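Worked example

This section walks through a single chain of length 271. The input is the sequence exactly as stored; nothing has been trimmed or padded.
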Amino acid sequence: MQQKEKGEEKLTDQSYGHAAGQGHHGSFWPIFLAFAVGLMPFGVLLYVWAGKFGLFFIALGGLLTLYGIGGWLNLLIKERMAHLGATDREAWSRNAVKLFLVSEAAIFGALFTHHFYARAHLPQWPPAGAPHLDTTIPFIATLILVASSFTMEHGHKLLLKGKMVASQRWVLLTIILGAIFLSCQGYEWGFLKAFDEFTLKSGTFGTSFYMMTGFHGLHVSMGLIVLMLTFVRLKLGHFTPQNHFFLVGSSWYWHFVDIVWVFLFGTMYLL
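Given that input, the structure is written out below as tokens.
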């Protein structure tokens, strides 16, 4: 009883498999997914330099990304349903997600480095002939995306308190806010193309702008898919206040996407 009062009791299999003695079960999905996502900016570069040949790699990267998301989530759900999650497995899952986020941060870091390198070697920025980027809609979109981080975090806190229905509602609100953000970005792209004739091939500025905002938009889309699966699993009762790392990993990814956009907004629209 004293051990239980100190919170030192071990969770049973009924608490979703947090028992000792389970071994490591590695997964190649995080590495596969990072590779697949990396094919898309590579394809964009080829499209700019070599024409339509780059579209093949963009499409291939997109298909492999969707396949990787599905494969990884399928593995996680199977493990959950089979009660295979031990403490060391959860630790491994946390490290796998962290590794994936680090790899994604490296890709974004490369894009930012290319952008600032190009700026440093041009006589003026934005280059002559580039359109003026209005900040009104992007700023509103930024506020919406930042707000979605808070709604996601609040949904997580409600889950920790055992308020499952309320947690579902806040995760759903996060999904809605993310979809609104994507709509704002799509409107911005359409406006620039229709009224300013500003496209991916509009010089260094156009390439940098569409590569970085497009790559980020892809990540938001991926995040929405993961959040929708999180919402479904909440509805199905897959999570408990003690065992819900899938939701935690989803929130980590969503916060990462939000932070990247804040830097991206500052770089593209303010500097």
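What to look for: The helical segments are 2-5, 29-50, 53-81, 87-120, 136-160, 164-195, 203-235, 245-270.
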